[in-house]
Amino acid sequence: MEFSIKSGSPEKQRSACVVVGVFEPRKLTLAAELLDNAAHNHLSDIIRRGDMEGKAGSTLLLHNVPGTLCDRVLLVGLGKEKEFGDKAYCDAIRSAVRTLNETGSFDGTVFLTETSVRKRSSAWRVRQATMVAQETVYRFDQFKSKKDKVRRPLRKLTFVIDRRNELAAAEEALHQGQAIAEGMALAKNLANLPGNVCTPAFLAETAQKMASEHKLECQILERDEMTALGMHSLLSVAKGSQQPPKLIVLQHKGGKNDDKPVVLVGKGITFDSGGISLKPAPEMDEMKYDMCGAASVLGTIKAAALMKLPINLTVIVPSSENMPGGAATRPGDIVTSMSGQTIEILNTDAEGRLILCDALTYAARFQPETVIDIATLTGACVIALGHVATGLFANNEALARELVHAGDDAHDRAWQMPLWDDYQELLKSPFADMANIGGRWGGSITAACFLARFTRKYVWAHLDIAGTAWKSGTDKGATGRPVPLLMHYLLKRAGKLD
Ligand code: BES
Ligand code: MN
Ligand code: ZN
Question: Are residues 286 and 371 in the same domain?
Answer without folding.
Answer: yes
